[in-house]
Amino acid sequence: MKCYMCAKMGKDTDAVAICIVCGMGLCKDHSIREEVPIWEGGYPVRLKPDIDRIKRIVCQPCHEALKENL
After folding, report:
1. Which ranges of 1-70 would DSSP assign to H, the alpha helix?
2. Closest CA to 60 of 32, 18, 20
């Protein structure tokens, strides 16, 4: 699998991770690994803090969306 973000820029970079939100393949440069809020799966989207404080991998667009909706 290749990094989707790199492919959009015309680069051929192997993916080392997958975004837990959208499933996008990511290289090391485009992956963000940190504590992110938890979505309970309902609508409207309601996010809550992760009480287990587990670091997860997300892509940059999903990271921005999650932080924006806190």
Report:
1. 4-8, 60-68
2. 32
pTM score, whole prediction: 0.78
Separation between Cα atoms, residue 66 and residue 19, nearest integer Å: 12
Over the stretch 28-62, which tens digit does the pLDDT of each residue have? Answer: 999 999 888 777 777 776 777 777 788 889 999 99
Q: How far apart are CA 4 and CA 11, in angstroms?
A: 9
Q: Which residue reads 């806190």 in tokens?
A: 70
Domain ranges of the chain: 4-68
| Cβ partners under 8 Å of residue 53, min gap 6 | 35
Q: Which residues contact 66 (CB under 8 A, 6 or more apart)?
A: 21, 36, 37, 47, 58
